[in-house]
Design goal:
single chain; 486 residues; mainly alpha; 2 domains; 18 helices; 68% helix; 0% strand; globular
Length: 486
């Protein structure tokens, strides 16, 4: 049940009416209703995995409670490791078991030994990477004594299965979402308008930008051996935009939907294509995952390697971003994708500017030009690395790169089997980037101060244009969001 489907609209409208008009005065019933709504939403795609979600939630709830109650440090430690094994073990089995088997067989095949080991027909539960990381952070924070374990099972189960973000994030921490579940929510007209605005912007990015870019990227990547380098560059560009518009579009819609229900969940994108270096990019891209890995992987590693100085920092970053790549899926392309992003930090580590924000004078023309070139360089670097993200195998990615870097890159790109004029997505992409640039200090691109007068007419005109673009140019053939498979 995708956010951009007719089924979800009916589902959410029914939930919204019951939530605010019928049970708004009873917080416990509201939470129970959100829990049931989350289970219906999750089971809509495949009800078999609902039992895994419920059992997984129950196990972590009980472990968290016993960790809170016990005074025996050894018992608490055993409970902690049990929860880590349960979360990481489940993730490893469903997502990586067959990958480990195939890699093991391939390694022996290289030395001439054939192994008769078979893989399993494993179906990956939807959203497992997201709700597993959500529960792992809960258990780790209890161990660190940063939060108290909740004693209300309805609140915890709702936290794990919160339907706006269970399938593709953002990855909310317990310290962010559970306190909001514990207190009464009140209806707000301003929050409703803002939530609807963010949903509209997310729908525009998904239906008008991402899905129309997909028609080009699928053609180019599926037949890259028949196209010249200039067309492959165009394909890489469209894919970078498609991935951003699709995933950030989902995140905008998830945040907007949560806001309509009275919740403020984690921001996931902060206009990453305006980043001036790779460190800034990752502070703006998939922020809930980046901060999760920073807090639970990078920071402990950096502390462990601190005696090695810059070498230790590099090892911590490299491991962190390689794990980031692995998180996305069981494929060597994702591993290499994360590894390369870790390597991109080397110049920043050498200069000692990894954690520093750019502080250049905006009033200087030369300074602005340098910042523009930094943004362009960062985007190109990220765009080229996304080829690995799109490729099915390492060999396919390298073959794509081999055809990309040749003299035909200066020719005019041509694309076959395209029903949409090339200028159309380019204009929409330009409009998207322009609006986001103008709104880059806001929480989302359609967050305006509605003060009346001429400005309100301009805002109304912009909303009208976006709505009509969704109606006229929104691609209706694909409802699936790209990050659901992760």
């Amino acid at each position: 049940m995708a956010f951009n489907s007719f089924e979800f609209i009916l589902f959410f409208v029914a939930c919204y009416i019951i939530y605010w008009l019928m049970i708004s005065k009873q917080i416990k019933i509201q939470n129970l209703f959100l829990l049931l709504a989350g289970y219906v939403f999750y089971a809509w795609t495949n009800w078999h995995f609902l039992f895994y979600l419920i059992a997984f939630s129950a196990a972590n709830f009980l472990i968290g409670m016993y960790m809170e109650q016990t005074n025996n440090s050894r018992t608490k430690q055993w409970l902690y490791y049990t929860a880590l094994l349960l979360g990481a073990g489940g993730l490893a089995f469903f997502k990586y078991f067959n990958f480990f088997i195939d890699s093991f067989k391939d390694a022996f095949h290289l030395i001439g030994i054939g192994l008769n080991i078979h893989t399993l027909n494993i179906i990956i539960p939807l959203g497992i990477s997201f709700f597993t990381f959500r529960t792992l952070s809960y258990i780790i924070d209890i161990q660190r004594e940063e939060i108290k374990a909740t004693k209300d099972w309805v609140i915890f189960f709702t936290y794990v299965s919160f339907f706006p973000s269970i399938l593709s994030g953002p990855i909310d921490r317990a310290k962010t979402l559970i306190p909001q579940l514990e207190k009464k929510r009140s209806f707000s007209v301003n929050e409703t308008i803002d939530g609807l605005s963010q949903i509209l912007w997310g729908l525009f990015k998904k239906a008008v930008i991402a899905d129309n870019c997909a028609s080009y990227t699928n053609e180019i990547f599926d037949h890259y051996q028949t196209y010249q380098a200039s067309t492959l560059v165009l394909g890489a560009f469209f894919y970078a935009i498609q991935l951003y518009a699709d995933f950030s579009g989902y995140s905008d819609m998830a945040i907007g939907i949560a806001r309509l229900l009275g919740f403020n969940i984690t921001k996931n994108f902060d206009f990453p294509f305006f980043a001036e270096n790779i460190a800034s990019f990752w502070r703006k891209w998939h922020m809930s995952l980046t901060t999760w890995l920073t807090d639970y992987i990078f920071t402990p590693l950096n502390f462990t390697f601190r005696r090695l100085g810059k070498k230790g920092l590099f090892f911590a970053i490299l491991i962190n971003y390689t794990l980031c790549g692995i998180w996305h899926g069981a494929n060597w392309t994702y591993i290499l994708y994360g590894f390369l992003h870790g390597c991109y930090f080397i110049p920043l580590i050498i200069k000692g500017t990894v954690g520093k924000k750019q502080n250049m004078n905006n009033n200087s023309l030369f300074s602005s030009f340098i910042r523009f070139m930094n943004r362009m360089g960062t985007f190109i670097l990220v765009m080229l690395t996304f080829v690995l993200f799109r490729a099915d195998t390492i060999q396919q990615a390298f073959s794509f790169y081999a055809r990309l870097f040749n003299t035909s890159v200066f020719s005019i790109p041509t694309i076959e089997n395209s029903n949409l004029p090339l200028l159309t997505p380019v204009l929409f992409i330009t409009a998207m980037l322009l609006i986001e640039w103008m709104q880059r200090t806001k929480e989302h691109a359609l967050q305006f101060n509605r003060s009346g007068g001429l400005k309100s007419y301009s805002i109304a005109l912009l909303y009208s244009l976006i709505i009509w673009s969704v109606i006229l140019w929104g691609y209706s053939g694909n409802k699936t969001f790209m990050y659901v498979k992760f």
